[in-house]
Amino acid sequence: MGIKERLVELKSLLPKTVSLVAVSKTKPVTDLMQAYDAGQRIFGENKVQEMAEKYQQMPKDIQWHMIGHLQRNKVKYMAEFVELIHGVDSLKLLTEIDKQAKKHSRVINCLLQIKIATEDTKFGLTKEDAIALLNSDQFQDLKHIHISGVMGMASFTNDAKQVKTEFENLKNTFDTLKKIQPEMEIISMGMSGDYQLAISCGSTMIRVGSHIFGARN
After folding, report:
1. I want to staple 44 with a disulfide (CB 3.0 to 4.6 A). Which of 21, 103, 208, 211 is the partner?
2. Which domain holds residue 47?
3. Calpha distance 171→145 (Å, rounded)
């Protein structure tokens, strides 16, 4: 099966309430265009420079999502066009995104990255951090960002029960934060290996790469 066929099959299995981010990092534009021609319009990259280069080369009706860990000094290179930033894990980063968005007279959508995994390598805010952030005076001053929801990455494990618990934690955190920020609607969780489980736990957005584009080198 090619990229087109895999994508069409995957989309046919998804509920209407779930959007699909095609994780296209390290893949060439020719691969992305195959997905584009099959109707895919949301692409996720984890390196700002690579995303900016692809943005230049590809049709302008694409929504570009930044899904990797983001450094503050890189925000300016994508502030003009990025649609959604998945991994916001500090007020400092949010403030920088706000500053760069203002320069382009736009509002950038962001997801708060919540730490649900047990591994130390995963970034993210605790539930308490996120509540404090949304309630802070500094946050109220930011006019060029919009918190659209939350994102989380489960532990890298074969223990489905643990992953399910972590996904449920993210859904619970979302429900709590939505009381503070009622316009939140996105729960970004689930990847190629666990998206079905994520959807059953309430995911509204999944990030799938290898399942569409094939394994990475």
Report:
1. 21
2. 3-212
3. 22
